[in-house]
Design brief:
heterodimer; A: 20% strand; disordered C terminus; B: alpha+beta; 4 strands; 47% helix; 17% strand
Chain lengths: 345, 195
């Protein structure tokens, strides 16, 4: 008998989650950690399959069927709450008809240590469970630090992008931003208006009153354009004195012409600067993108540019809405003096 | 040096002495930033310069300050995760001492590019140990002193520690264990994760 006691003691140390079963499938002995899962109910004396539900292999209800699984992996679950899942393997025991089932938590160990207040002493000295718990914690802490870094980097990236898409002098969008917005609208394939706006006589302001006056004029122009458009419109400064406005809600030519007229009217008013007066105006060329027209970004920009040429040629402070006939006329016209390279945009 | 180490110094200063002191130390150390990122790597020269700056700003001798860093690392609630990870090393203080040999490997399991200095424990008797620490940064032995003193308390053990010298990039600490179960110690719950 003492030989069996010794055996049980050895198993308690080596496999603290084992059970010894009788030939009828009743628990004769339970390892100390396994018993800790149900501290109020002694496992000894109860039927093993009453305590545990065998999930895999399925449909095993008798001791004979259980014995036949010897040596293979068992998936079990405690029948009453907390219904912890365990893995196990059955081997024939020392005494005739007896068997030993060794159990372990598998991946459920992280919850199990909390549910059952387990300590290092509850696991065999050779068991890697405590190392695994260490790793789970260490990795979570490291991941947490990485996640915080990613969040900060993302914040910095958004700020940098914001900066990269903004014209610092006027606070308007820059050419890069305009390209993005325009490409997106063409992708959506919805109707929108595109205005190319060149300032008239801006170079004269710069040449006679200096750059500070020029900067002041550009900032005033930017404010006027923002005030005369909707929030959903995109106002961009795409060159020294060149602007583009994308108007996604342009209902028709009249609405666009109304906005263009107001912009020209307001920009034609004298702009005071340090006791001097700056006089400019604006020429506008407008094109409308029609859904399913198959127009590319370059084509719609070129249309607006052709219309802009016509406005410049027509005597400035004018606006023109693009029409294919304009191209024929444009071939017979030379570019107005002082025009920049917007046509190549 | 790994960002985690530099960040630990930063947290020590700002958690113990306030953010203003940290900003001052960063300026004295000639950093052109004030936040170390835990998961980035920094130039090796930064750390010794930073420690000198902190010692200057706090007006504390370098060795004392290094020991305070060690104490901070395993006792401040903001870095509770670290104390927990160290407690996984053993169920009592002696087991913990033995686990220090594995500390650099354990650290690397969690953060693969974190290189902690090698530590070697020699036991002369069941109560007499010496800990030989590789010290890429002078005074690392004093950091270990702070950690060991606090962990001894954590385990409820009574130990006398002495920094017995340095040379050739190695520092030695002698550990005399007076009693292993001197006080209750702090509870270590396997399942309780540090927040």
């Amino acid at each position: 008998m003492s030989e069996i006691r010794n055996m049980e003691r050895a198993l308690d140390v080596l496999c603290p989650m084992h059970v010894v079963l009788s030939n009828t499938g009743h628990v004769i002995h339970a390892g100390p950690t396994l018993q800790k899962l149900r501290p109020d109910v002694a496992m000894v004396g109860r039927r093993f399959l009453e305590i545990f539900d065998l999930k895999r292999p399925r449909a095993i209800t008798t001791m004979d069927a259980l014995l036949a699984t010897a040596g293979t992996k068992l998936h079990l679950q405690l029948r009453d709450a907390p219904q912890t899942e365990v893995k196990g393997v059955l081997v024939p025991g020392a005494e005739d008809g007896q068997s030993i089932v060794n159990l372990s938590f598998g991946i459920s160990v992280v919850d199990a240590v909390t549910d059952y207040a387990l300590t290092s002493a509850d696991f065999a000295a050779t068991d890697l469970t405590v190392e695994m718990l260490y790793l789970v914690e260490a990795k979570s802490a490291a991941m947490d630090a990485s996640r915080k870094l990613n969040q900060r980097l993302q914040g910095a990236m958004i700020a940098a992008e914001e900066q990269a898409f903004t014209d610092t002098l006027t606070g308007l969008k820059n050419r890069r931003a305009m390209d993005h917005v325009l490409a997106r609208h063409i992708q959506w394939d919805t109707r929108f208006g595109l205005m190319q706006i060149d300032l008239d006589w801006f170079k004269a302001v710069n040449d006679t009153l200096g750059h500070a006056a020029g900067d002041h004029v550009l900032q005033t122009v930017a404010r006027v354009m923002v005030e005369e458009t909707r929030e959903s419109d995109t106002v961009a400064r795409v060159g020294g004195d060149e602007f583009v406005i994308i108007l996604p809600h342009a209902k028709g030519t009249e609405a666009l012409e109304g906005i263009g007229r107001r912009i020209i009217e307001r920009l034609s008013r004298p702009i005071p600067f340090q006791g001097e007066v700056c006089r400019i105006s604006a020429s506008i060329g407008t094109a409308i993108f029609e859904p399913e027209s198959g127009q590319t970004m370059a084509q719609i920009l070129d249309d607006a540019d052709v219309a802009l040429y016509a406005s410049k040629h027509g005597g400035r402070a004018q606006q023109t809405v693009y029409h294919p006939d304009l191209r024929l006329q444009a071939q017979n016209l030379s570019a107005p003096v002082g025009r920049s390279s917007a046509a190549t945009a | 040096m790994h960002g985690l180490i530099n960040r630990a110094i930063q947290c020590f200063v700002s958690d113990s002495y306030g953010a203003d002191k940290w900003v001052e130390a960063a300026r004295v150390a000639d950093l052109d930033f004030v936040e170390f990122e835990a998961m980035l790597t920094y130039d090796d020269d930064i750390t010794p310069a930073l420690l000198d700056a902190v010692s200057h700003v706090l007006d504390r001798p370098r060795d004392e300050m290094m020991e305070d860093i060690g104490t901070y690392l395993v006792s401040h609630p903001n870095v509770e995760a670290l104390r927990r990870l160290l407690r996984f090393g053993g169920v009592n203080f002696v087991e913990f001492l033995h686990s220090l040999d594995d500390l650099p490997d354990r650290a690397r399991l969690a953060v693969s590019d974190l290189q902690l200095p090698r530590i070697e424990l020699r036991d002369h008797s069941p109560t007499q140990f010496s800990l030989i620490c590789q010290c890429p940064v002078a005074g690392y032995g004093h950091v270990m002193m702070g950690i060991l003193r606090t962990m001894a308390d954590d385990y409820g053990a009574l130990a006398v520690l002495e920094h017995t010298g340095s040379g050739n990039g190695v520092e030695t600490i002698s550990v005399s264990l007076i009693e292993t179960e001197f006080a209750e110690g702090r509870v270590f719950d396997l399942g309780a994760r540090a927040g």
